[in-house]
Amino acid sequence: MASENVYVEHCKGVNGLDKVILREIRGCSAEVYLDGGQVTSWKNEFREQLLFLSSKATFKPPNAIRGGIQICFPLFGTIGSLEQHGFARNRLWSVDRDPPPFPANTSHRAFVDLILRHSEEEVKIWPHRYECRLRVALGPGGDLMLTSRIRNTNTDGKSFTFTFAYHTYFSVTDISEVRVEGLETLDYLDNLKNRERFTEQGDALTFESEVSVDFHKQAYPFSWSF
Ligand SMILES: O=P(O)(O)OC[C@H]1O[C@@H](O)[C@H](O)[C@@H](O)[C@@H]1O
């Protein structure tokens, strides 16, 4: 597909998969694959990569691409019978040429709107009809914004519940420099200790060895520093 403008380029990525490159004038960029609706690259104005993408990522749909920002929908985690982190990351999304307006209009030039709709095959696994929209926008200063909107399109008016996450793999130069703040006093399940429950005591989570923990309570605001 030909380039649309300097800010948004539709092209082919690894294994001929469709991808969209967003660029801003200062040199920052982001790449989004239609497979999984997944951001796989985010570079700042110095062309430094901010996201981790595994060298073992296969780019073979319907396997999720290992790295970047995976969209977990309609499930984050492993509750119930659905596959871990839901199926949205395994599906081929489409470019949404005519998205509904956003409440707050932004002046971004580098953005793409994607949409994922239920498939009849999928309704057998998760009996709901939906539209899942995602806008990926790159600001002039290189900030990356993801906006998700989920619409229930069940024809019988039945409501559904879901969980959602941006499963983000950050690229980190020195893990010992990373601190995650704002989790103090919250309970978590430790995946490396049979999902035993603990309460976070420290004012910052730091990483001296492998850590795999799930904080289930809402924990905002929190912040990372690298
Ligand atoms: O291998 P998956 O399904 O992509 O999951 C990646 C990771 O997802 C995290 O949410 C889990 O806490 C980890 O245990 C897991 O390794």
Automatic annotation (TrEMBL):
<dbReference type="GO" id="GO:0030246">
    <property type="term" value="F:carbohydrate binding"/>
</dbReference>
<protein>
    <recommendedName>
        <fullName>Glucose-6-phosphate 1-epimerase</fullName>
    </recommendedName>
</protein>
<dbReference type="GO" id="GO:0005737">
    <property type="term" value="C:cytoplasm"/>
</dbReference>
<dbReference type="InterPro" id="IPR011013">
    <property type="entry name" value="Gal_mutarotase_sf_dom"/>
</dbReference>
<dbReference type="GO" id="GO:0047938">
    <property type="term" value="F:glucose-6-phosphate 1-epimerase activity"/>
</dbReference>
<dbReference type="InterPro" id="IPR008183">
    <property type="entry name" value="Aldose_1/G6P_1-epimerase"/>
</dbReference>
<dbReference type="InterPro" id="IPR014718">
    <property type="entry name" value="GH-type_carb-bd"/>
</dbReference>
<dbReference type="GO" id="GO:0005975">
    <property type="term" value="P:carbohydrate metabolic process"/>
</dbReference>
<dbReference type="Pfam" id="PF01263">
    <property type="entry name" value="Aldose_epim"/>
</dbReference>
